[in-house]
Amino acid sequence: MCGATEGGLSLDGIDVTKQAVVQGQVTRGGEPVGNAYVRLLDRTGEFTAEVPTSATGHFRFFAGNGEWTLRTLAAGAETTDKKVVATVGSVAEVAIAI
After folding, report:
1. Domain spans in the chain, listed from the N-terminal domain onward
2. Please, are residues 21 and 14 in contact by the beta-carbon 8 Å criterion?
3. How far apart are CA 68 and CA 73, in angstroms?
4. Cβ-based neighbour number of residue 82 at 10 Å
5. What are the pLDDT digits (tens) for 61-91?
6. Are 92 and 23 in contact (CB under 8 A)?
7. pLDDT computed for residue 5 by the predictor
8. What Gene3D superfamilies has UniProt attached to this entry (predicted)?
9. DSSP code for 4
10. Are 97 and 61 a contacting pair, CB within 8 Å?
């Protein structure tokens, strides 16, 4: 069992009514993957941002409205792409298994 916050990262102090939040967790075999990298690519595949995962495998982006691709890079794993739609006023929770 992982030590992740139930339901994902805390949103305390974030006004989600004014943000398009994309967040989630990277796991391998059900365990969190720290020190992986998650890239945010726009709908044309252009690089927009990159963040490392926390020790609990979590990541977060504040994105604009629209379709995005999350590209996950981790040692010993194939590159994984996952599509997500971001909308101002909501939180897109994404689980990425590598």
Report:
1. 16-97
2. yes
3. 16
4. 15
5. 999 999 999 999 999 999 999 999 999 999 9
6. yes
7. 42
8. Carboxypeptidase-like, regulatory domain (2.60.40.1120)
9. P
10. no
Q: Bridge partners of 26?
A: 96
Instruction: Name the fold adopted by 16-97.
Output: Immunoglobulin-like (2.60.40)
How many C-beta atoms lie closer than 10 Å to residue 38's C-beta? 27
Residues 15, 34: Cα–Cα separation, whole Å: 27
Residues 16, 88 contacting (CB under 8 angstroms) = no
CA distance 86 to 98: 22
- How does DSSP assign 6-73, residue by residue? TTSS--TT--GGG-EEEEEEEEETTEE-TT-EEEEE-TT--EEEEEE--TTSEEEEEE-SEEEEEEEE
C-alpha radius of gyration, the chain, whole number:
13
